[in-house]
């Protein structure tokens, strides 16, 4: 397990949090520690979380004659991010399995392990009911051409109806041939710069995977997590912070010339009251200002520097 702090990981932990108050301010280091949450280190490093449900459904992704194992791995990673899991390879140039693909997949092992290899495209499509072919080039034929949004909605509807579906992606260098596109039911193309239509294969797969995932959301504005709930600060707490700042600045001769002091204070208060603070944010701010007031660069908090008291040695007198 790892603790994550607002400024990164600290070299030590400090007990006590919001209760470490003193007359002149707040121990902001303790406050920041209280904002931390214990979460698995692998989740911190990569965004993955093995304790949550793993989505693994949807259309098969068919790569026709992919060349580099790294590209296949990046495709698998893109798929896993958006809940797709079935990867099919048609005659991969460098063979299969591929350690380069596994490394590039960044732990999307469930996709890599389940990957199936076929000698021909016809074999790869044989058990599917409906297939899209992706292309950035204009094709003169009779295939309906869909946008990614429409294609994803169609795939989602067919998935709910129990149909097996797939999306074909061509070679890194020149995509799909006309003969291969002819094997699909419809074409999907991306709204890219007409003068620079050059997506790599993993990017193309990611775009379609994202549209697939988005099509399954009940609310397109929903997010996977929300900020921590914090209690709004009272005006008394806000005024107390402002008074502390004004006192510290006044003691150092900040408000000069004296004739401009009222206006300078008005400007300072306007800045500090521009947004609504939470209680925790007020505590952090007061702790920061109090630290400026009590310690100097030449004599920082803690004998060994500003992090010393986080390791359990505290030379100040505000007490735990």
Mean pLDDT score: 78
Count of the separate structural domains: 2
Strand order of the largest sheet: 7-6-5-10-8-11-9
Helix content range of the residues, please? 25-40%
Describe this structure in words.
The chain has helices at residues 28-34, 41-46, 69-81, 99-104, 109-113, 121-125, 148-160, 178-181, 201-215, 235-251, 261-272, 279-294; strands at residues 2-3, 21-22, 25-26, 38-39, 60-64, 87-90, 116-118, 130-134, 145-146, 165-169, 186-188. With 320 residues, the chain is of the alpha/beta class. The chain folds into two domains: 2-42 and 232-302, no CATH class; 60-215, SPOUT methyltransferase, trefoil knot domain (Alpha/beta knot, 3-Layer(aba) Sandwich), CATH 3.40.1280. The strands form three sheets. It has a seven-stranded parallel β-sheet. It has a two-stranded antiparallel ribbon with strand order 1-4. A two-stranded antiparallel sheet has the order 2-3. The longest helix is centred in the last third of the chain and has 17 residues, at 235-251. The chain is elongated, with a radius of gyration of 29 Å. Residues 1-45 and 305-320 have low confidence and may be disordered.
């Amino acid at each position: 397990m790892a603790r994550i702090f607002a400024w990164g990981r600290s070299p030590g932990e400090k007990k006590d949090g919001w209760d470490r108050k003193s007359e002149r301010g707040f121990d902001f280091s303790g406050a920041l520690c209280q904002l931390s949450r214990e979460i698995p280190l692998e989740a911190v490093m990569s965004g993955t979380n093995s304790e949550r449900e793993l989505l693994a459904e949807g259309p098969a992704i068919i790569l026709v004659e992919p060349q580099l194992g790294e590209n296949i791995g990046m495709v698998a990673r893109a798929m896993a991010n958006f809940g797709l899991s079935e990867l099919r390879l048609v005659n991969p140039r460098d063979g299969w399995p591929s350690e380069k693909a596994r490394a590039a997949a960044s732990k999307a092992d469930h996709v890599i392990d389940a990957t199936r290899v076929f000698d021909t495209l016809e074999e790869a499509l044989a058990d599917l009911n409906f297939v899209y072919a992706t292309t950035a080039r204009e094709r003169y034929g009779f295939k309906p051409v869909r946008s990614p949004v429409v294609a994803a909605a169609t795939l989602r509807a067919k998935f709910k109806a129990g149909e097996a579906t797939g999306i074909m992606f061509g070679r890194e260098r020149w995509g799909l041939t006309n003969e291969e596109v002819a094997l699909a039911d419809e074409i999907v193309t991306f709204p890219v710069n007409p003068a620079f239509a050059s997506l790599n294969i993993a990017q193309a797969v990611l775009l379609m995977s994202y549209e697939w995932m988005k099509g399954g959301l009940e609310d397109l504005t929903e997010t996977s997590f929300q900020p921590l709930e914090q209690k709004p600060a009272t005006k008394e707490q806000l005024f107390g912070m402002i008074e502390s700042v004004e006192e510290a600045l006044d003691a150092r001769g900040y408000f000069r010339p004296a004739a401009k002091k009222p206006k300078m204070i008005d400007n300072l208060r306007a800045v500090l009251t521009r947004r609504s603070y939470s209680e925790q944010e007020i505590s952090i701010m007061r702790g920061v200002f109090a630290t400026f007031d009590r310690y100097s660069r030449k004599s920082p908090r803690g004998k060994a520097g500003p992090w010393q008291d986080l390791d359990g040695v505290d030379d100040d007198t505000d007490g735990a």
